[in-house]
């Protein structure tokens, strides 16, 4: 083994959005930094496939544009490639009772929506009068929703949402960890509806418009404050690729970190380069581990076994995404929204589907629509046993039924298999994070930065990575 690097200020393990963001800010601050990424491309679970004149995004389909993400986009020099969907492009539907029903966007729609029966609506309104929870241990999302709003909301809204967005199981997720705002609304206002209406009213009060955003198809798409959901022209991997370009030789692709050691005030890492190149030993003042929970556990095992055990307790069920293109006239329902989530009672296997070309016109040529179906998650991990052809058949069969697609074969643009897709904040999550934090307190040279540490969205990963970089610059 040879040491071929001068000692670094910071070695970052993992070149997903968390590691890239952290390294980018450190480099900008003048630190000697290097990123070691096991794969041959940067971006982690942000991938794009360009095929058949379409663009299929793996991992996130769109991003919430927080101020920190907006800053990163600007500093990475890709603000000119930001796309905002048309207003209708954000509307989610639920497939329930054999049809697509738009999710109500305000309380008035809630009263008239066919999504819930009259009994279901009355039960949901009971939230206004039910007492606060006074005691008891950590509650699951399902128990919380059942208690406040009833079984129907759980079955027709929350379970499809949790399955489609977080690949999760509401019976296992902790409401405190996964949806802290709901717990806060109950604690503060005694009712979710009253609390949500109050904050909505407070938000609307200033009524000052931010800079306008050109919508997809409306000229020059740009960034602004009215539409917080965006994607990138040409594919979402544009952002990680831009960050990698700016990192230049400071990013090493095909470089897997195998082990870490503490050497006094310094850290050492063994890096195995792909393609038969020799192993390297690197020395750094700090190591930022920006890998998923399971890989992080393997890396900290010899340093802090209790932290590794807590990390191994964070499940990340698998997800499969398959992007299919159909002739534009094939769907028998209007694709005027974000896509749909499927209730588990409907006998379809897909968790949901994003209507990519309805949100971002560059995802397919004008005569086709591009749809990305999601399968698997905590409730259906066995999806990984199916081969690619079976998965395409399943997705096509379900899409034919939900979107009333006439019998036409799709063009398979691409597929993505994520063995450990999205970390789950199951019961005990906060305690596990506290254990990890406590165990690593005595090892300040090692810092963790990953999607299991809180909200897994790209925007939240960027925020945590920027905050971590700031502490390492001081
Ligand atoms: C299917 C799916 C859909 C999603 N949808 C959305 C969405 O719509 N909106 C949204 O905001 N977010 C979404 N997310 C979540 C978000 O994309 C992720 O949480 C985020 O991108 C994770 O970034 P990361 O850098 O923390 O981890 P990762 O992207 O997992 O990156 C970790 C990197 O570490 C590397 N690595 C691992 N071990 C080693 C090692 N020993 N040595 C070197 N490198 C190593 C891996 O190769 C990988 O590249 C989605 C995620 C998935 C999987």
The structure class reads alpha/beta
Q: Helical segment tally?
A: 16
- The CATH topology of one domain comes to FAD/NAD(P)-binding domain
Spans with pLDDT under 50 lasting ≥5 residues?
Answer: 206-227
Radius of gyration: 23 Å
Based on the coordinates given, report the CATH architecture of one domain: 3-Layer(bba) Sandwich
Number of strands: 19
Strand content: 15-25%
Task: List cofactors, ions and other ligands.
Answer: flavin-adenine dinucleotide
Helical content band: 25-40%
N-to-C terminal Cα separation, in Å? 33 Å
CATH C-level class of one domain is: Alpha Beta
**Largest sheet, strands/sense/barrel:** 7 strands, mixed
**Shape by Cα distribution:** globular
Average pLDDT level: 92
CATH homologous superfamily title of one domain: FAD/NAD(P)-binding domain
What would you say about this model in short?
This protein is of the alpha/beta class. Helix content is 34%, strand content 22%. The radius of gyration is 23 Å and the shape is globular.
């Amino acid at each position: 083994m040879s040491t071929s690097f001068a000692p670094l200020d910071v070695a970052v393990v993992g070149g997903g959005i968390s590691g890239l963001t952290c390294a980018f800010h450190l480099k900008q601050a003048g630190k000697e930094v290097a990123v070691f990424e096991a794969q041959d491309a940067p971006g982690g679970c942000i991938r794009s496939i360009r095929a058949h004149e379409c663009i299929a995004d793996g991992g996130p389909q769109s991003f919430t544009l927080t101020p920190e993400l907006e800053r990163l986009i600007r500093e990475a020099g890709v603000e000119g490639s930001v796309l905002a969907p048309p207003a209708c492009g954000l509307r989610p539907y639920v497939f329930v009772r054999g049809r697509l029903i738009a999710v109500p966007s305000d309380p008035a729609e809630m009263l008239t929506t066919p999504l819930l029966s009259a009994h279901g609506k009355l039960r949901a309104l009971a939230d206004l009068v039910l007492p606060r929870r006074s005691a008891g241990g950590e509650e699951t999302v399902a128990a919380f929703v059942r208690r406040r709003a009833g079984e129907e909301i759980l079955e027709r809204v929350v379970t499809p949402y949790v399955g489609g967005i977080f690949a999760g199981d509401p019976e296992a997720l902790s409401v405190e960890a996964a949806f802290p705002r709901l717990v806060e609304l109950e604690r503060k206002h005694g009712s979710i509806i009253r609390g949500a209406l109050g904050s909505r009213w407070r938000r609307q009060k200033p009524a000052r418009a931010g800079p306008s955003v050109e919508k997809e198809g409306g000229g020059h798409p740009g960034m602004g404050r009215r539409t917080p959901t965006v994607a990138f022209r040409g594919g979402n991997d544009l952002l990680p690729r831009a960050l990698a370009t700016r990192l230049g030789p400071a990013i090493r692709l095909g470089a897997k970190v195998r082990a870490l050691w503490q050497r006094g005030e310094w850290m050492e890492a063994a890096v195995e380069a792909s393609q038969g190149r020799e192993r390297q030993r690197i020395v750094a003042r700090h190591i930022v581990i920006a890998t998923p929970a399971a890989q992080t556990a393997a890396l900290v095992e010899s340093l802090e076994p209790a932290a590794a055990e807590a990390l191994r307790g964070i499940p990340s069920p698998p997800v499969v995404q398959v992007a299919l293109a159909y002739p534009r006239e094939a769907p028998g329902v209007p694709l005027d929204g974000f896509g749909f989530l499927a209730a588990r009672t409907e006998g379809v296997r897909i968790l949901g589907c994003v209507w990519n070309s309805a949100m971002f016109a560059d995802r397919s040529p004008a005569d086709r629509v591009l749809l990305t179906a999601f399968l698997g998650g905590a409730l259906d991990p066995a999806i990984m046993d199916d081969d690619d052809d079976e998965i395409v058949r399943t997705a096509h069969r379900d899409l034919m039924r939900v979107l009333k697609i006439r019998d036409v074969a799709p063009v398979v643009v691409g597929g993505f298999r994520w063995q450990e897709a999205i970390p789950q904040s199951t019961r005990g999550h906060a305690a596990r994070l506290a254990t990890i934090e406590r165990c690593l307190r005595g090892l300040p040279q090692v810092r963790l930065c990953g999607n299991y540490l809180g909200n897994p969205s790209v925007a939240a990963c960027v925020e945590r990575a920027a905050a971590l970089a700031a502490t390492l610059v001081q």
